[in-house]
Amino acid sequence: MENLKYCKIRNKGYGQKWQDFKIHYVGARPKLIRDDGAFSSGKSLLEALALKFTNFDLVLTPEESRIQRNDSSPQVCVALPELQKMNAGLFTQKREVTQRAVSNLLSGLFPKHFTAGSQGSQPSSIGKKARSRKLKARFNLKDLRRLARDMKKRIETNKSEAAWRNYLQQNILYIQRGDIGLIPKADLGLSGASYPDFFLVTYDGYLDILEIKTPFTALLSYDEDSKTHVWSAEIARAVARVENYFQTVSDIGDQLREKVKNCRGIELPFIKPRGIIFAGNSAQFKGDRPARDDFEQLNEALQNVNVVTYDELLTRLRNHMTVLSGSKGKK
After folding, report:
1. Which of 14, 91, 116, 131 is deepest in the core (most CB within 10 A)?
2. pLDDT surpasses 80 at 139
């Protein structure tokens, strides 16, 4: 290790636990490592390794991945080409997918030490009739294509938050495959600004909290002092609002589970809310790779909150259509 160069993590988004942790590398410093030691998927990679090893050294190398034992702690060498390959497809995906990809990467590289992570348990009971109707609607490829065309036009022109709230309330279950129910707070007997307008129930048993901005919402602003991008004031406020929702929802967790069961026949195994902020468009980063990288880092650093751009949402719908087209072609 004495001959290896390293960069210390100084990125505050990694949390106090990882401050001053050394990211070692072989040869010249890889371009993906920033001056503050952060790199794409870095925090998720470190946290996944920490679940297996109490102490470890991380080495990014152009050579083959391997784990070798030192006197004090294991040395985990991760091949840069494999890490870069994983990161290439993650920009438009949720943080949960990033964590799963890290788990799969480690299990593929080091099968003796890691197994591929599984997703959370599914709700034990689901309103069968409602789910059947929704699934049938989703398989109408013609309607989905019409929805995609309409959504593309709206992304280019619609600047109204109220209009987007109504639009997503009507269509989110057709856009995202992992959602099984959308419940307005009024249906659960909730009122007031302390609760989100509606909840989104997912297949893996989560109750997602949505904060809806517009495709024209600025995602980042440039901080001259740190010479890096930070969340725009509007996104920072949205994150704070979602985090406040977490507290109020968690405070009535058991009551809320009962309300969801009585209202929609959906039995949630737990109340562990996640936040999703629909805002902006990645076209804001066109030709500005540092801004795109900073967006990734900022998003990864959020705790149980994810900022999803509207063009990513449209990509999810189109990917769903592609899958359906393939499955219909095989019949």
Report:
1. 14
2. no
Instruction: List, for residues 11-33, the tens digit of each pLDDT value.
Output: 887 888 899 999 999 988 988 89
Contact predicate 276/133, CB 8 Å? no
Single pTM value for the model? 0.60
**Measuring CA to CA, which residue among 256, 127, 251 is closest to residue 199?**
256
Tell me if 221 sits within 8 A of 229, measured CB to CB: yes
HSE-CB for 215 with a 13 A CA cutoff: 21
Tokens for 111?
């099968």
End-to-end Cα separation, the chain, in angstroms: 57
CA distance 211 to 117: 28
